[in-house]
Amino acid sequence: MIKIAIVQEGPEYYNLKKSLRKAEVIIAKAAKAKSDIIAFGECWLTGYAAWMDYCPNVGFWDHEPVKEAWATMYDNSPEIDGPEIKKLCQLAKKHKVTLVMGMNEAIKKGKGNGSLYNTVIIINQKGKLVNHHRKLMPTYTEKLIHSTGDGAGLNVVEIPKARIGTLICWEHWMPLARQVMHDDAEDIHFALWPMVKEMHQVATRQYAHEGRCYVVSVGQIMRARDTPPQLELPKNLKKKPNEKVLRGGSCVAKPDGSWLLESQYDVEDIIYVKIPNLKSNTKEKMNLAVSGHYQRPDVFEYNVNKKRLTD
Q1: Cα-Cα-Cα-Cα dihedral sign, residues 107, 308, 161, 221
Q2: Which residues contact 106 (CB under 8 A, 6 or more apart)?
Q3: What torsion, rounded to 10 degrees, do the Cα atoms 99, 102, 106, 107 define?
Q4: Exposed/middle/buried for residue 230 (C-beta within 10 Å: 0-12, 13-18, 19+)
Q5: Gap between the Cα atoms of 218 and 74, Å rounded
Q6: pLDDT tens digit sequence for 158-171
Q7: Whole-prediction pTM value?
Q8: pLDDT digits (tens, 9 = 90+) for 106-150
Q9: Distance CA 200, CA 41 (A)
Q10: Distance CA 29, CA 248 (A)
Q11: 235-290 per-position pLDDT tens digit
Q12: In angstroms, what CA-CA distances link 170 with 13, 210, 302?
């Protein structure tokens, strides 16, 4: 049995120091509850830019308020070799847990500096950073926020009891990205989203059925008051600071595509779920194994470039 803690609480939006302190409290609480894996959502450090979808004028060229909001995000985003990631590694080792953490990754020196990436990292129970994945393609309005990632992080890693991997949001509709992960034999897949909407539920179940693995979809909570102060709120939110603009929806699908945990909306808490038995993954592969007997490598060929763009 594997116990997973899904963090459906928001960070201290666009405040790196306070968000790291909050993460420390959450990790300690989840570890005390005997969690094996603790999963945070897309860009949790230090906040997904959902305001790109509801604030007016944010798409205007050279718009000063949105540039200031982006600069605040950049200044409050961790570097992969920075002290905040080292702190997370220390916490994972201290509590003997595996961390899956979504973040806005800043490049502040060297090649690639001046850019933000939509990133997810995996830190194992020994406190080692074992995978670092940058989202391949920012989705729609995200293109104003994030740079395009690379294939260096398309990996599945071994932790005690399971092999785990991650993808971010609409990467789940990139067929070859899915195939790379299936070829690496995941037991549990972590899908990071801003909020798990209906079509994201479809993607969750489809990935589980296709990959014959458990899929943990992580959604988030964000309120109107979490919008950067530089930006104007739309009329329907101006007098509703507590209105949720992201409502969570975290869920877990089994290897046959059915639900282990249906979407949990408006729950601002740590959601615990137990993966009962990974043997269920194996039996489902009898009739579908997309990297094995249900694959035709003599017909289909593809290559994966795993070079890091900023190396």
Answers
A1: positive
A2: 74, 77, 78, 79, 115, 116
A3: 70
A4: middle
A5: 23
A6: 999 999 999 999 99
A7: 0.97
A8: 999 999 999 999 999 999 999 999 999 999 999 999 999 999 999
A9: 14
A10: 20
A11: 999 999 999 999 999 999 999 999 999 999 999 999 999 998 887 788 999 999 99
A12: 23, 16, 20
According to DSSP, residue 234 is labeled P
- The neighbouring-strand residues paired with 167 are 191
Query: What's the pLDDT at 281?
Result: 86
Question: How far is 172 from 47, CA to CA, in rounded Å?
Answer: 21
Q: Are 44 and 15 in contact (CB under 8 A)?
A: no
Contacts of 82 (CB under 8 A, 6+ apart): none
Spatial separation of the C-alpha atoms in residues 203 and 197, rounded to whole Å: 10
Is 210 strand, coil or helix? helix
- The partner residues of 164 in beta bridges, in order of sequence, read 157, 188
Tell me, which fold does domain 2-284 have in CATH?
A: Nitrilase/N-carbamoyl-D-aminoacid amidohydrolase (3.60.110)
Question: Residue 63 carries which side chain, given as an amino acid letter?
Answer: H
Type of residue found at 259: W
Mean pLDDT of 76-82: 98
- Residue 114 class from Cβ within 10 Å (0-12 exposed, 13-18 middle, 19+ buried)? exposed
Backbone φ and ψ of 252, nearest 5°: -140, 130
Written as six digits, the tokens of 194 are 């801003």
Each residue's pLDDT tens digit, 182-233: 999 999 999 999 999 999 999 999 999 999 999 999 999 999 999 999 999 9
> Could you tell me which residues come within 8 angstroms of residue 262 by beta carbon, excluding any fewer than 6 positions away?
251
Residues 6+ apart with CB under 8 A from 96: 31, 125
Structure tokens at 209: 């059925």
Cα Rg of the chain, angstroms: 19
